[in-house]
Amino acid sequence: MAKLELFRSDTLLEISSEAFNFAKEFQYLDELTEDQSPTESASTFALLDFETPIVGQKGQLMIASKLDADIHQNACRLAFSGHLLEVFTEKDYHATQLAKLKIFKVKQRVGTVERVQDEYTVIVRNMMKKETDTSKFERMKVTLSTGETGFIEGAFGKSGKIKVRIPGEPCVLVK
Fold first, then answer.
1. Which of 19, 32, 52, 87 has the fewest Cβ atoms surrounding its Cβ within 10 A?
2. Beta strand 44-50 with 2-8: parallel, antiparallel or unpaired?
């Protein structure tokens, strides 16, 4: 038995010519879907944390099965397959090796443009609660429904409103 964590990269990894790159950032996945393209499947990785150690070496083909599935049903019990890219042998690999793995989750917040402050800044409400520390979100990217992109400049007052800076063309609010 093993715990499974799925993540993907935007770039394809050549198993034979390149080692796993811990410097890259990977997007967390909740599940594997059947409708993934071959490119998406090839850039999807699985971290298996086994309850007890197993024998394996880099490059070896691994096949995972769903043993809890009913054996009397006419269904495939294979979950996925792939090649072993990294092997962790240290007892404290969670702290030493897995700490280097950069996996992120995509999160989205939605707010409403309240008004234009100046030709490059808009005030947005309902994106954060009033007790939220907006300094954690400064310089994060914001995309407006009109297509312009900007970044969070900081808080506007103490009610949870924020200032969004849109570099480039001056802002024009259209009703």
1. 52
2. antiparallel
> Any idea what DSSP says for residue 171?
P
> Chain centroid to CA 59: how far?
25
Q: What angle do CA 153, 9, 32 make, to 5 degrees?
A: 110
Would you give the end-to-end CA distance of the chain in angstroms? 58
Dihedral, 106, 107, 111, 113 alpha carbons, nearest 10: -30
Read off the pLDDT of residues 60-118 as tens digits, 9 standing for 90 and up: 898 887 777 777 777 776 677 888 888 888 888 888 888 888 888 888 889 999 998 88
Predicted structure pTM score: 0.61
Angle at 110 between CA 104 and CA 116, to 5 degrees: 125
Residue 22 CA to residue 55 CA, distance in Å, equals 23
Q: Are 113 and 123 in contact (CB under 8 A)?
A: yes
* pLDDT band with cut points at 50, 70 and 90 for residue 42: low
Amino acid at residue number 173: L
Token reading at 106? 């995509």
Place of tokens 């800044």: 121
* Six-digit token string for 85: 């890219």
Q: Is residue 155 a contact partner of residue 171, using CB atoms and an 8 Å limit? A: no
* Strand pairing class (112-118; 61-65): unpaired
